[in-house]
Give the backbone structure.
Amino acid sequence: MDVSEVRARNLRLLVQRAGGPTAFGLLVGRDQVQVSQWTSEKTQKVVGTRLARDIERQLELERGWLDRPQWTGADARPALDPRMLVDAYVIMDDAERDAGRRFSLRNVDDAARFVLLYTWRSHMRRDPSPAEWIELGRKMSAMAGALDGRSDTRETAGHDASAVAGTLRTPPQIGTDTDGK
């Protein structure tokens, strides 16, 4: 199996984990059509080295990750971590409420942003340090800047990261009541 086949298979795995080409496209700053071309079984467009490194950078993966097989079986996929899902949901819901927006997983854009947040949260330690919360706050600020139509989210990304991180609390354990009822 050559490197282009390994990259294609790894990309299919990542696209599946992200929830489909649209969600994955949002994660890497590409459109759904382009992602579908990379993962098509019939008319697959080859992912070159420069693009592979860019995708790895966008996803904060180790350099060369896409070039090495990342599967152990035909359709290997790690189980979702329920605690991380709850963490991501509570964080997203609180942040959207604080911004005066209504968050709903039935909305495809909200769902895609939730997948992105879950991905970020799942790469953190189970009990994150304050620095990790601040970094998550920075990423959420950049995402909010893009959502609010700021032209250069790189300049605004760190602007209110501490404020966003300050609103992040240790999310509740599964099975606990988040509304105090």
User: Anything to note?
Assistant: The two ends are 56 Å apart (CA to CA). Residues 130-147 form the longest helix (18 residues).
